[in-house]
Structure formats: C-alpha cells, structure tokens
Amino acid sequence: MWYLVISKPIVSRPELEEVLPEHRVWQRQQHNDGIVLFSGPTSDRTAGIYVLRANSLTDARKIADTDPLHARRTRDYEMYEWACGEILGAGFRD
Q1: Taking the domain 2-77, which CATH number applies?
Q2: Whole-angstrom distance, CA of residue 16 vs CA of residue 76
Q3: Which of 11, 30, 89, 91 has its CB 3.0 to 4.6 Å from that of 36, i.e. a possible disulfide?
C-alpha cells in the first residue's frame, strides 16, 4: 500500500534548517531502498510531501517516525493511506 505523508514545521525555520542535512541523507536512503517513491516541498515551502510504500499503516508510521525531522520534533505529519487509482496515464477502471 502507498501512504501520503504531509509534514509541517513546528519550530522556527533556523531550528528546522539544523536538521535538514540529516533529513536529506535519510530521504536519499529511503529513495534508494524503494521505500519513498516521490518527495519534495510545496512551492511555498510550508510543507513537505512524500509518498512511501509499506505493508501497513503501522509500518508506514514507523518509517515516517525515523525521518530526522520527525524524530527530532522539528516537524509533525499527517499520514493518509492512499489507494492510487492512476499513475502516468495507466489508470485502473471500474
């Protein structure tokens, strides 16, 4: 299953920037391992969004909790289980 993570800061920008290098290393590893499929900030940089793959919501939360931005309490997140209906024009029809 896929999970949509929307991550928003809960500290000042300078505090957040201290953790960003760790987050980027974590994020690259998740991409390399095929866990995080898409990632990036919103255009106004008020939130970060990523899509991850996991076997369950519990597993997905465990993964998101290891993101240094969440583990170090600089961001909080909302997570949605996502039943993707279409990708790159290859949609599923009822």
Answers
A1: 3.30.70.1060
A2: 12
A3: 30
